[in-house]
Amino acid sequence: MIENQKIRPAQVVGPLGEPLTLASLPAPGTTRWVVRRKAEVVAAVNGGLLSVDEACERYSLTLEEFAGWQRAVDRAGMPGLRVTRIQHYKSLYERHQRY
User: Is residue 27 part of a domain?
Assistant: First the structure.
């Protein structure tokens, strides 16, 4: 029975090394997404604080949008989340994959 219950951590390590809790995450309904806020949501999902579905519902994100944030963090870290640098980091990643 216990295996079927969802066990979630009370806090996870945030993108800057600080503890993240549900209360410290960006407010539901956030519309201005700066790099730090995106990274906090990705860290919360990766750490098990939120599921992908919960994050998408809480922040009115599409699955594709959240997946893009996750890919950007995986490929280039927090700088990859900067909207103005997406194309730059994408081309660096593609070149790296070729070699």
Answer: no
**Domains identified in the chain, total number:** 1
Rounded distance between C-alpha atoms, residue 27 and residue 84, angstroms: 24
Q: Does this model's pTM top 0.85?
A: no
What does the alpha-carbon distance between residue 82 and residue 51 come to, in Å, rounded to a whole number?
Answer: 23
Q: Among 65, 21, 60, which Cα is nearest to 40's?
A: 21
Q: Give the whole-angstrom CA distance, residue 54 versus residue 48.
A: 11
Residue 97 lies in a domain: yes
Q: pLDDT tens track of the chain, all 99 residues?
A: 455 557 889 999 999 999 999 999 999 989 899 999 999 999 999 999 999 999 999 999 999 999 999 999 998 899 888 876 656 666 666 776 776
User: Hey, which residues does 12 pair with through a beta bridge?
Assistant: 20
CATH number of the domain encompassing residue 43: 1.10.10.10
CA distance linking residue 68 with residue 80, whole number of Å: 10
